[in-house]
Amino acid sequence: MYELAYSSKTPTNLTQVDLSAIQNISGETNLILGITGCLFFHEGDFVGILEGNEKTVKKLFAKIRGDHRHDQIAVLAKGPIEKRQFSQWNMMSCTKGERTPDNAYYNLSVWNILSLSELTEKNTHGSQIFWSTVEESLQGINFRTR
Ligand SMILES: Cc1cc2nc3c(=O)[nH]c(=O)nc-3n(C[C@H](O)[C@H](O)[C@H](O)COP(=O)(O)O)c2cc1C
Q1: 45-65, pLDDT tens digit by residue?
Q2: What's the structural domain count of the chain?
């Protein structure tokens, strides 16, 4: 079993339609490939983690790397793991609406993801760095890789 965590940014504003397209194709393909993990999107930042067979993960990441919908791609962690930290592949995002103090939907989404991060077991280097980078994005802190 192998894990790879990465971060990237969107050169242009992605719409909800673009995000849904990525979510749909990834959900289908990763299930077939036996890939689990998570893709987080927030205000132009992507943070992703992929887990599965080493060759399959590397091949899929090579394809993701070449996708024009993002750039500034940085590998945060990669290497062998004993067991998966994610039971399926999923997407997390809280981009609906504006980040304003009184946008309840937005604030609840941020709170939900931060709570999830706090409650989630992180037994691998990749999952630790994935969640800490997600938290940095939600708190408006620049990724250390930039
Ligand atoms: C940030 C980001 C993450 C992506 N993650 C995945 C993924 O986990 N699995 C996947 O199949 N495609 C993912 N994609 C989409 C792929 O880059 C690619 O467009 C898609 O797999 C279709 O490839 P195909 O045209 O060769 O079938 C991602 C794209 C972006 C921008």
Answers
A1: 999 999 999 999 999 999 999
A2: 1
Which of 19, 64, 134, when mutated, tests ligand 1's pocket best, judged by the most ligand atoms within 8 Å of its CB?
64
Separation of CA 112 and ligand 1 centre (Å): 26
pLDDT digits (tens, 9 = 90+) for 37-46: 999 999 899 9
On average, the pLDDT of the chain sits at 92
Beta strands in 22-70 (DSSP E): 36-42, 45-52
Give the domain CATH number at 13: 3.30.70.100
**Residue 23 is part of which domain span?**
2-138
Pocket of ligand 1 from Cβ distances under 6 Å: 8, 22, 25-26, 29-30, 39, 46, 48, 60, 63-64, 67, 69-70
DSSP string, 68-86: TT-EEEEEEEEEE-SS-S-
Q: Is residue 122 assigned to a domain? A: yes
Nearest residue CA, atom 8 of ligand 1? 26
Per-residue pLDDT, 105: 83
In-domain check, residue 146: no
The predicted model scores a pTM of 0.94
